[in-house]
Amino acid sequence: MEAIIAKIKEQIAAIEKDIDKIDNKAAKARVRKATLALEKIGKEYRKASI
């Protein structure tokens, strides 16, 4: 469970790093990719927490 939480925090940090770069297309792509990964990790967390 701690590993999943660490992955969540890592993805959130990646999103926070690029979220304010509105005019940067590469940053937008990184944020989209990180949010998709966060979704997958969220599903893992949900399964583990039940």
Write a structural description:
- This protein has one domain (2-49).
- 84% of the residues lie in helices and 0% in strands.
- The chain is built from 2 helices and no strands.
- The chain has helices spanning 2-18, 25-49.
- The longest helix is centred in the C-terminal third of the chain and has 25 residues, at 25-49.
- The N and C termini lie close together (11 Å).
- The model has no long low-confidence stretch (mean pLDDT 94).
Q: Would you kindly provide a brief summary of this structure?
A:
This protein starts with a helix and ends with a helix.
Compute the separation of the termini in Å.
11 Å
Low-confidence stretches: none
Count of strand segments: 0
Helix content: over 70%
Number of domains: 1
- Helix and strand pattern: HH
- Indicate the radius of gyration in whole angstroms: 12 Å
User: What is the tally of helical segments?
Assistant: 2
Characterize the main sheet: none
- What structural category do the secondary elements indicate? mainly alpha
Mean pLDDT: 94
Estimate what percentage of residues fall within beta strands. under 5%
